[in-house]
Write a structure and sequence with these properties.
By secondary structure, this protein is of the alpha+beta class. Helix content is 40%, strand content 33%.
Length: 100
Amino acid sequence: MKIIYEVMAVVDPTLGDRFEDFMAERHLSAMMATGFFLSATLTRSVDRFQMRYTVIDRATFDRYLAGPGEDLRADTLKHFPTGVRFDREVWHVIAEYNSV
């Protein structure tokens, strides 16, 4: 069963553009380069950001957490030690629909 790993970030308004650039230009590509994710999206609503990563199954996601996950989190915290509050959630995909 596919997993959606969702990370929500509330960002200090003075850091918003820098955070967006970091996520779009560095972090999401680093996440995808791990080979654990099928896709990634980055969305923004003023001072809130949503990063969603699709994973083939829970076992794959657990391997990510045990491997490169810690390093990627540490890298983000190194660039943004203050001014960003993260919330993370794991979703199980029940149904998926795509247009043709």
